[in-house]
Amino acid sequence: MSDAAKQTPQEQAPGAQTAGPTTGQATGQAAGQTTGQTPASAPKLAAVSERPQPPQGQEQTAMTAQPQPSRPAPAETPNPNPGPAAKPGQPAPKPPGQAPGQTPGQPPAAKPGGANERLRKPVRPAFRRWRHVLVGLSFLACVALPSAGVGTYLWTVAADQFASRTGFSVRREESSPAAELLGGLTSLSGSSSTDTDILYEYIQSQRLVADIDAQIDLHAIWSKPDYDPVFTIEPDASIEKLLAYWKDMVRISYSSSTGLIEVEVRAFTAQDATLVAQTLFDESAEMINQLSDIAREDAIRYAREELDESVEQVREAREALTLFRNQNQIVDPEIDLKSQSGVLSTLEAQQAETLIEIDLLRDTVQESDPRLEQARRRLAVIEERIAAERRKLGFEGNEREGTIFADIVGEYERLVVDREFAEQAYVSARAAYDTARAEARRKTRYLAAYMEPTQAETAEYPRRFTLLALISLFLFLVWSVAVLVIYSVKDRR
Fold first, then answer.
1. Does the pTM of the predicted model rise above 0.70?
2. Which stretches does UniProt call biased (Pro residues) (predicted)?
3. Which residue in 284, 269, 281 sits closest to 163, CA to CA?
4. For residue 288, what is the DSSP state?
5. How many CB atoms lie within 10 A of CB 18?
6. Domain 161-172+191-306+444-472 is of which CATH architecture?
7. Mean pLDDT, 10 residues at a time, over the chain (493 residues)?
8. What is the bridge-based pairing of β-strands 162-172 and 260-267?
């Protein structure tokens, strides 16, 4: 070890640290190591770095108060062991111990935290300021005291609330097969999500609230605890305020997949909660019945219209048939046809007998015999009558065109067919109308309750711990944001 390394702290330069070598010593040692300094040159460097040291009590003050004087770099000494000579065109080789990027003769860089690092100025201790006191007071005023006030109100003033629950669903009946065969109402499904959607909206409507208030006086029920102004409603509140309060006190759960509705009604007594729930169920059932009445009225109106049309058709057909009979003086052309056919048959039989008689007379008497002449006149009369009857039936001739019996029969058959068709339509329409009336006496839609209105025994509301936690959290978040904003603005100034 060199003589410079053996010096005591009192022999070192002023401003140097007592725990290690001085900056001059470190520089000298590094320079000596870099340039290959021999032990003989070490006393020179030590003599340059030796300076009188201040007392230990004043060492720290001298270091912080006075800047350390700069020291001249030690002179370079020739290296007794030079490396190999550099060849022409190649860079000169670095001496041993030289760091990368270090020029020859330059002292090595001091490492952080080493002996060359100066002592930093100590951090000034924090003191309590007025802004810290104001932040604490604002927390008390904005968070702690309001939360304490809310808790006091919830546990000492807020009235208990009881809940009554009921559940129901809209069901629809199916019509009987007989009604379908008779042309009555169409078949109905077992459940109707559309009706349930209508009921769900109706429960939240102003009309229902007004109807229930008119029946049981909701203002009186929900304003009973007059010492609780937060959770009650004014006795003279408007219908709009009552509707808003209704949505707070009546909670509806609706599943569109199952079509089930569950309603929770709250009041300040268990009896009032059950009463409101029961009235709500009754009003909902009445509304569903009104929907059924509308549907039944539509079905009955359609059947009645069909019946009226069929009755009109039957009346017109019968009037046309009566007019035809009056004009032709025939009640039933078929009966007249039979009688006319009988007359014609009789005349043809008499004609045949007369012809036989004439033939017999020709064989026995002369041509001038009066009996033969009478037989011939009788035959002529029978033939004329047969011709007239045949013309009446329409078998020959057209001298009475438009009034022949065949046309009369055809017109009569057409009128009879029209009358029979109208009568059949009337029978069907009458059956449909009777079926519609029978279905109208039943409920095609009805409200099925799977849970009757319950009566509570223990108060479930208000949820005091939940309300206190939510209010306190909200106040704390608002206060935190306000404080952060104020400090951010202050730091930007």
1. no
2. 69-98
3. 269
4. H
5. 11
6. 2-Layer Sandwich (3.30)
7. 40 39 39 40 40 46 42 47 47 51 52 53 64 87 93 91 92 56 42 75 93 92 86 90 93 88 93 94 90 80 88 90 82 72 81 84 80 85 81 57 65 87 91 83 78 91 93 95 89 77
8. antiparallel
